[in-house]
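Standup notes, protein team

Yesterday: finished cleaning the Aquimarina rubra set.
Today: SusC/RagA family TonB-linked outer membrane protein structure.
Blockers: none.

Input for SusC/RagA family TonB-linked outer membrane protein:
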Amino acid sequence: MKKQTQISKGLLLFLFLFPVILFAQETITGKVVIESTGESAPFVNIVENGTNNGTASDIDGNFSITVSSLPARLRVFALGFSTKMVDVSQAGAITIQISESTEALEEVVVTGLGTSIKRANLANAVSTVSSEELVGNTSQTTVDGALYGKVTGVNITASSGAPGGGFALRLRGISSINGNNQPLIIVDGVYVNNVEIPSGLRFASGGNRGNEENAGNRLADLDPNDIENIEVLKGSSAAAIYGQRGNAGVVIITTKRGKGGKTKISFSQDTGINVIQNKLGLRPWTAQSVEDTFDATERQRFEDAVANGGLIDYEDEIYGNTGFITDTRLNATGGNEKTQFYVGGSYRDEEGIIKNTGFDRFSVRANIDHKISDIFDFTSTTNYVKSNSSRSFTGNENEGGLSFGYTLAFTRPWYNLFPDANGNYPNNPNYPGNPIFVRDQAKNEDTNNRIIQGFKLNTKILTNDRNRVRFLVNGGIDYLANETYVFVPKEHQAQVGGQEGFISQGKNNFTQINAQAIAIWDHDMLGDDLDLTTQVGITYLDQEANLVNSRGSNLSVGQTNVDQSVNQVIDQFISNEEDFGYFGQIEGNYKNQFIATLGYRLDKSSRNGDPNKFYGFPKASLAINISNFEFWSLEAVNQLKLRAAYGETGNPAAFGATFTSLGSSNIGGNGGASVAGLNGDPDVEPETASEFEIGFDVGFLDSRISLEATYYNKNVEDLILSRSLPASSGFTTETTNLADLKNEGVELALRADVLDTDSFYWNTGIQFYLNRSEVTRLDVPAFAQPGAGFGTGLGTFFIEEGQPVTQLVGNIDGTLTQVGNVEPDFQMAFNNQLTLFKQWDVSFLLQWKKGGDNLNLSRFLTDLGGTSPDLETPEGQARLATPANAERFVEPAGYVRLREAAIYYRISSDNIKALFGDTVSDIKLGVSGRNLFTITDYSSYDPEVSVNGGAGLSSGIEVTPFPSSQQFYLHLNVNF
């Protein structure tokens, strides 16, 4: 009986999904043309209204459709055109004219896991960045680096200036103290891994932590030129539908897709150089200052060096390389009414400002859209990437003799450290490392092989006058195979008599699988005045990581592998995380006047204390388009929208935080009890952020001028903290829910088409945003955040109730004192696009960061070494006379920077045709630059800095970073 019931249900479902028209009676043929030009309109949809029966015009605009009876009504629609209803009373050939529509082309924004909405009806402040905004001005190495100054509410900090990047993105402030602060990255529906991978370098250099190893984050594997647009869901009110993964915001990336019609081929070549952005320069030594700083013996060495060729500028020797950059891209797009494709490949090779450093990335992409039938359509996105980087040795260490900044701080320019005729490098008499030897002989490299595969299957279950029901299944896999390699020869000065050579090899595999199934129902009510969109679904995420690091010391002569070392250590870390959730959302749109959304997400995660417990995350929003009401008569203001939204998101504990781990130390001799390291909490709850935002959008003069204004208040409860415990407790650290914090801020975005004539076009945009944070609850005494500074002696992030989570605290005369705050007072960006005589494109992006402090411990080191460039000045001498504490090294980190600037020339179509006939359609030549100038009071290489990588409280602390660079480019773009 059960089997028969299942067969009956299957038959009913088959009949429901695959209705057939048994008695077709009449055929209508014709052509679709564009009303304004009379040109054929290819791939326009023609559907018998109220049915699934439909077709599409071919490449010449011709179509044929068989309808059940006459008269019939046809619904004609396509992206970029107004929908048109055509009544046909008799069979035969007809011509249908369709008109281009600004409204139809209006930007849409993701509001659910399977739906989108026109920006004019959006109730959240969601920022979007188009392909032209992202890479249209200048060449970009990484996606996150390309976002500088282009999104309100986003603070970007460079954790390294090395090629291949290293960036921390913070959306609306700090969302977690101990946990993840990087947003969730989704590329074409695939949850993408943006991990930083430690290499084991710290075991050679003496660096303290894995997050100080100058690693890049793996968003660097994605070619920015493949991207069509980016949507940034900055707050919980927009990201609530993503549940436990949305606490730090969500970045949704859509890559380029094929377009029907003639196959078009595009070739682009960028060629450029990398140079150091800001050199500090040598201290202006004199014989007397050398003697005053050191002694008479050093004075004699200084005078001998001056007499025999001069001083050596080791900063220029290490950071003065001119790196050559090439970025080559070739892609093709095309298709027909059934299948569209975008295929392409790119290769970027970028040398760094330090000799033997660089980054290269080979990327191949194939995006396919296929219409199986009127019921089914399928999308596939495939991206293979192979990238390599060599990042050398910078950042924090403890007397390892490898980090260039450390070494240069103590290296005196009257000593010759270059190799002799036999290739032997002298020892550095002032520090345990010769920077020239390290640059030439030591290695710090990584290699990545990556496949990102996404898919989407869309099923149209029902389509009629009032209802449109579809079922969507999508997801994908992100597989990353990473290898790291660190090698320090045994001849290195610090290795002699110590490790006698060091090598570290890592093999790290990451697999991330996500899938979701969504049912979506669009329903028209009240005579089409009320549109309802309902979606329900389930989602699944599985993350697996296997990190193996093999290290060896005491190497055999000339050997460069772990097997040939005497002392060997192998570390392995394996993790497996699973998330599962249900979600539902309903959106209502009444006459484009009132647009409301209600949603709820239920999630469980293996990282929670109870892996089977579901946590709920609600969302609600309302937008009121006052300008769409009948009483509105102010023609100059075409849009006035008020909006409000509320949402909640979560963040589970880090992997393993729920368990108590046992260390290897023994108490009481052999056979004694083990000392516990981490005191886990099996009842730990996820961190939960609740955010309320309000705002308004105004459009003037047909939106030639627009203003978006937003205020948000975001509260994060049940923060998961790790704190140190006294040894008497039997544990070293404890992780549990201990605190709350809040972020509140303002975001403003003004855009204007200032001029739009045949010979001159000028578009400008101004962005302004600020954030304020505060720890609102702390159930333990205030403490220095582990791993986020260097103790209260030199300065650290300090977690204290009633104070900003971004404060820097130091011990000043025995009192813990706030000496700075890394959070800016505000940030602004000024973006301009100009077109002159339809052939010249000029653009620039100016960024202003007001306020915010850095703890400049690079200067602490150069002061110790006596090499700070300003020590000849009264200010420098006064600084040396003050205690070497955090207050002395905190500096203002505000700046004004010309982030991007470019000039392009488009060759006229007449000249192209004269030279190439119909083979080439467009040619564009250009020059551009990045980081062209910076105005700042900050005394080091770059006020955007982080010694701690992209995790946790990462910004505002500097210890001898890889300096940032300027880039200059020549561009050639050709379309066939």
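Follow-up from PR in the comments: The first helix runs from residue 2 to 17.
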